[in-house]
């Protein structure tokens, strides 16, 4: 595989997109009844709550790996918080990912991070690939979340597509230059 040229700016944009899209999703979650939040609706996970908790758990685990924490918490096995606590934790985790990217040394993008998966398998993958994975993983599950929300009768969703994020950024730039 030929070397792909990546920049910190690109990942800053992706992290900002991820936080924006997750914040939109948190707004939807805030509007759900507890029954909708916990209702069995099968996709990759058995409910909206379980899907959201998986997303938070994965993003948090990556942030902790990036920070070289010796023990990575897998929140999915232990977190029992309320819906509001899930939303707060999701916003906090997305902000932590964005903060990590903003402070990351661009010279290290191609440096592999040694880590272990939850099952103990050891891996070594360049940061740029892991950063892309974190955003892609969240995008994948946000798509599932939209379907799950519609299945429980919530229709107040909107696009969390990357192009939508870029269009909004362009509109803000154009209106600030007027």
Automatic annotation (TrEMBL):
A divalent metal cation binds at residues 54, 137, 141. Coiled coil: none annotated. InterPro entries: DinB, DinB/YfiT-like. Pfam families: DinB. Signal peptide: none annotated. It comes from the Bacteria. The keyword Endoplasmic reticulum does not apply. Belongs to the DinB family. PANTHER family: DAMAGE-INDUCIBLE PROTEIN DINB (PTHR37302:SF3), SLR1116 PROTEIN (PTHR37302). Keywords: Metal-binding. GO terms for molecular function: metal ion binding. The keyword S-adenosyl-L-methionine does not apply. This is DNA damage-inducible protein DinB.
């Amino acid at each position: 595989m030929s070397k792909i040229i990546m920049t910190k700016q690109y990942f800053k944009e992706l992290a900002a997109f991820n936080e924006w899209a997750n914040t939109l999703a948190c707004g939807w979650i805030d509007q759900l009844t507890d029954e909708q939040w916990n209702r069995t609706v099968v996709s990759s996970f058995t409910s909206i709550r379980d899907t959201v908790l998986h997303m938070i758990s994965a993003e948090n685990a990556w942030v902790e790996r990036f920070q070289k924490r010796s023990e990575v918490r897998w929140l999915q096995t232990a977190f029992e918080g309320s819906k509001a606590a899930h939303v707060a934790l999701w916003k906090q985790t997305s902000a932590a990912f964005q903060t990590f990217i903003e402070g990351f040394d661009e010279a290290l993008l191609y440096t592999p991070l040694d880590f272990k998966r939850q099952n103990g398998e050891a891996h070594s993958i360049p940061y740029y690939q892991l950063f892309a994975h974190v955003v892609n993983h969240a995008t994948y599950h946000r798509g599932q979340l939209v379907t799950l929300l519609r299945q429980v009768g919530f229709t107040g969703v909107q696009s969390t597509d990357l192009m939508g994020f870029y269009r909004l950024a362009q509109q803000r730039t154009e209106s600030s230059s007027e």
